[in-house]
Amino acid sequence: MKTKLDKKTLDCLVQAAIAVKKNSYSPYSHFKVGAAVLAPDGQIYAGTNIENASYGLTVCAERNAMFRGVCNGQRQFIALAVCTDPVEGDDFGSPCGACRQVMAEFMKLDAPILLVSVNKKDQTKVLKKKLKDLLPLPFLKPGE
Ligand code: THU
């Protein structure tokens, strides 16, 4: 059965991204990120950013969430949520270029990407985009 992208389902995904953010391993940037992806069967996979003393080895929350799903046998995700503290005042954190390219590997271009910011008073804001808004003119698998 294909999971519907209704409000309740997307709210669950947002909550999963918010909840996992506390496990972020980010002793260098102190910038905690949580992400969650939804698979067609309704399973949610969550991940955080994981940093390293050798800074370049850091892996973002979005890729850790997607890779967790892939390691569990998933090959397609129908939505992704990413949660950060508000960036520069009131703005949303937004996925890096590398994560956008990995999204294009495992998500359709019209899949919703929910940018979530939670401030110090626990007020949550959500900005809904599509992958094609974040990654125009994507490089896709040759032949597709
Ligand atoms: N980060 C993410 O987890 N996702 C992004 O899309 C952008 C950046 C992490 C990487 C690093 O641990 C911290 O945020 C600061 O760049």
Chart the SSEs and their pairings.
Elements: H1 7-20, E1 34-38, E2 44-48, H2 61-71, E3 79-84, H3 97-106, E4 112-118, E5 124-130, H4 131-134
Parallel strand pairs: 3-4
Antiparallel strand pairs: 1-2, 1-3, 4-5
Bound molecules: tetrahydrodeoxyuridine.
Descriptive key words:
144 residues, alpha+beta, Cytidine Deaminase, domain 2, 5-stranded mixed beta sheet, 21% strand, binds tetrahydrodeoxyuridine
Instruction: Fill in the CATH topology.
Output: Cytidine Deaminase, domain 2
Q: What are the bound molecules? A: tetrahydrodeoxyuridine
CATH 2nd-level architecture = 3-Layer(aba) Sandwich
- Low-pLDDT windows of residues: none
**Terminus-to-terminus distance:** 25 Å
- What share of the residues lie within helices? 25-40%
Q: What is the 3D shape?
A: globular
Structural category: alpha+beta
CATH class: Alpha Beta
H and E string: HEEHEHEEH
Number of helices: 4
Our estimate of the beta-strand percent is: 15-25%
- Tell me the strand order in the biggest sheet: 2-1-3-4-5
Q: Count the beta strands.
A: 5
Number of domains: 1
The CATH homologous superfamily corresponds to Cytidine Deaminase, domain 2
Q: pLDDT average, as an integer?
A: 96
Radius of gyration, CA atoms, in whole angstroms: 14 Å
